[in-house]
Amino acid sequence: MKDLTPTVTTGPLPASRRVWHAGQRHPEIRVPMREIDLHPTAGEPPVTVYDSSGPYTDPEAEIAIDRGLPRLRAGWIAARGDTQTYAGRAINPADNGFAEGTRLVPEFPLRHAPRRATQGRAVTQMAYARAGIVTPEMEFVAIRENLGRKAQAEALARDGESFGAAIPDFITPEFVRDEIAQGRAIIPANINHPEAEPMAIGRNFLVKINANIGNSAVTSSMAEEVEKMVWATRWGADTVMDLSTGRNIHNIRDWIIRNSPVPIGTVPLYQALEKVGGIAEDLTREVFRDTLIEQAEQGVDYFTIHAGVRLHMIPMTVNRVTGIVSRGGSIMAKWCLHHHRESFLYEHFDEICEIARAYDVSFSLGDGLRPGSIADANDAAQFAELETLGELTQIAWAKDCQVMIEGPGHVPMHKIKANMDKQLQVCGEAPFYTLGPLTTDIAPGYDHITSGIGAAMIGWFGTAMLCYVTPKEHLGLPDRDDVKVGVITYKIAAHAADLAKGHPAAQIRDDALSRARFEFRWEDQFNLSLDPETARSMHDETLPKEAHKVAHFCSMCGPKFCSMRISHDIRAEAQKDGMARMAEKFREGGRLYLPVEDKA
Amino acid sequence: MKDLTPTVTTGPLPASRRVWHAGQRHPEIRVPMREIDLHPTAGEPPVTVYDSSGPYTDPEAEIAIDRGLPRLRAGWIAARGDTQTYAGRAINPADNGFAEGTRLVPEFPLRHAPRRATQGRAVTQMAYARAGIVTPEMEFVAIRENLGRKAQAEALARDGESFGAAIPDFITPEFVRDEIAQGRAIIPANINHPEAEPMAIGRNFLVKINANIGNSAVTSSMAEEVEKMVWATRWGADTVMDLSTGRNIHNIRDWIIRNSPVPIGTVPLYQALEKVGGIAEDLTREVFRDTLIEQAEQGVDYFTIHAGVRLHMIPMTVNRVTGIVSRGGSIMAKWCLHHHRESFLYEHFDEICEIARAYDVSFSLGDGLRPGSIADANDAAQFAELETLGELTQIAWAKDCQVMIEGPGHVPMHKIKANMDKQLQVCGEAPFYTLGPLTTDIAPGYDHITSGIGAAMIGWFGTAMLCYVTPKEHLGLPDRDDVKVGVITYKIAAHAADLAKGHPAAQIRDDALSRARFEFRWEDQFNLSLDPETARSMHDETLPKEAHKVAHFCSMCGPKFCSMRISHDIRAEAQKDGMARMAEKFREGGRLYLPVEDKA
To answer: Domain ThiC-associated spans what residues (chains A, B) (predicted)?
Structure first.
């Protein structure tokens, strides 16, 4: 089968090096960051940025997709002494939708024995945090969030409106521990996904983004999905959700997890539904449970669980313009309606928690009743479910399970903040994880933009992770280009949110890029941008010559009209004359030359 | 010369017809709108949307670029009896940058004698409004803003947060008159551009967008610019600014204006600078005045005037990260610095007003000191200039001149609202017209998105017109594709703002599209979108067959996972059973099936 060993995109981004910062409490940890070198004429140190790309951007790393990434957390997990390996659940044909022969995606070549908690223990980061333990994962995250700052003293002057978020000037491992213990942040880190580099999702950390990938019954293959995962993290995806729904779902997921440097999320209901032939009403607690264990053993880091859809809420959706638009939500609603009872997810959520705590699978409590149109935003169904998600959060926390809460959807701008406020209030400050929201329904083909607007705003208001939307939303499955556009758009939204919240390090990159722009360091401008390739190629469309990259003007205005160039003349003149004296002279001048309104 | 008669894009958008609504006070006026027909199965009337595209989308219209558009306002203007035609200023070689021979763009073939006010009268819409006159332009705008609604009773339930804007349920001609008289709105409508269809820019009307076109010394030709203008209005640009700076500036502008159905704005300083060989300090009051008259006679509808840059403000920019980034601002700053005096624009602004009132050229008071980076947002220089723009507004209003105020720029989200609040406060509620703002500096190549976020927000807060930013911002001159992406992005921002402000008709299109989506009317979904071509082609990438356009699922989820389809089943089941009874049963059920937390 030609797809046996997929090739993926590797190599550093322009002028960039992957560097590592060592831990202090845990000297063995090496926290990756990206340093972007500037032109020598800048006289500035490299700019350090967050790096979600994993070993793929490290030219020294040996990448072998059929072996998977190094299992960097394996030793940390084993050292805790609270887990053991075991044989694991046998893979059966239903796990791959009964795909056979050449239609069956081959198994991942290596099988690692799964690990789980011994004796019903909770092996979650939350359990450790509550016990006062600062895990290597927590220190890793603390270092990562500081973006290379070494101490509080290096923080920028703070400027922002955080709406109650409290991001410290400098993140300590103890701060991370406390946030996890309080449930205000999570580190999605299944003990069976030791390849992932720990990251935090919480209102008091950098805003994160998620990219969705996954095949469907209609299209897409394993090699494409693995490359989409690598590609998405290259451009900045902090987590990836595998939303596959077709055949081969088990094997494709294995290839993705073994090669993923970021946490992987899934919606286990999709696979459970495949196992019962796509008939929602045939779903059972047992099939679902089996699927959770299957995926927990593979290493899925967070599960979307649509346990908030309750029977009495379904009539609330009947007069909606767009009914129920969440796949998981509609499946569960159909089940509830058919059996005329509460869903097994809701009734047996404690059982689901038992599984999650044994592997440290985090919950992403799904918003099955999220609005699918402007007309349906913030309605009774949506908020009723949100309140139930708040109840479920307490149940999960009682079991030391890590929780985040999913949010909408389609919401006009004036109704966005109410979503954040209500979520904080009813879900005990568990991290919010929203899809967009889309601020209008009228632009299919541009829903990365309709939703990027809403994402930036809700990120500012306090959402911890933004689920990307690609240009293909509502129209088709995203290809590699769509994934990139979606990721870059959401990096913009997340960064705009960090700036507005007043994150102490967010503006460093803006300032470095703007200085490069003002000083006509074109290469630095490209290299510091979120997408150096696109910036460079757009510049070169009009002024392709290498000489133009040192030109003190660009194609928009040409040399005569270049405001930046004139600004330099002004600055030079001002400095020649002495700034203070000049200002004084101008103030006199202002009185000598009588302005129009003084004459009137 | 091959460019003699450019061809432009014509023909209706899919399923769309251009329709006209007649005036009541002025029965001769015909206000264009676009009606989008829906599939018969919808059982819904056509959706009426605002139409800025002019006759180009009307298959009945005879388009001849070398004759120009019909001069629809000619009779209205003449009938007022306060203007006269005259010989006009002679065109001289400097007007076209001394281009000669084959390098000279030919003159527009028809020369219409220019018209100006008799005996120093003010022939502005503001003067008429203050005199209590409801002009045909005002009634045209009233009908246009209502989007085909015939009476207040047809208004939707209002829902929004308008931050003090007061959009009535139904716009009357008298309301328009009052808004113009108060200076809260403008109708940019030079008496020498009778081809344009009147439109309003004001906080209590639909949010408008502007598209910039124009050649530079480096690139671009006349035919391209005319097509860019037609293309931009096809996708929704409400006004177009011609920012040309190269040779042939006069002749290209003539071709653009004679064929433009929307108001045309310029920055006369650019041409004035060409006339003095590009040396800022050689600019004079006389050259500038001559340029204003030249452009007023051609029919430019609004002038950006950078009269707010004052001598004492220049030192305030010296320590900025990006100095002065407005071309006009930097030119005037250089002039002030060189001559060490206040600019002739500021000192003789009353003289500029005399010209503007004789032709009804509106002012767009330029923000020459707008911030060019996040670091420089909302600084002393920016706000000092804004206060001066407030002074100038009063001077212009005293002469019955129409005014709008330009705004930034680069502004992080938490500093956006302060811009709007301060503008309203110091500029007497004159309409605000902003460029973006860009909410981060780190994404060249995607600045339509970084700025679309800010534009949607500031539009919501009260900005009347949003100046688009294309993906090429900071990198190169936009081509036709960039213009379209910029326009669509800004239509999204403007529409998201209308929704959030609670415009009484804004949600009609969202609801129609969402109903189409829910009912799998794919064609309607495409046709109702801002860019039907792109929506259709993205859908067809995955599911190209015609049969799939009636399919009750799409490529994202496939048939089994289609939430919309399941929602229909749910709705059917609910209706079968009787909604109220069902809800009652569910409430009982909710008590029978004991949920998890009740057991605890």
So the answer is: 12-83
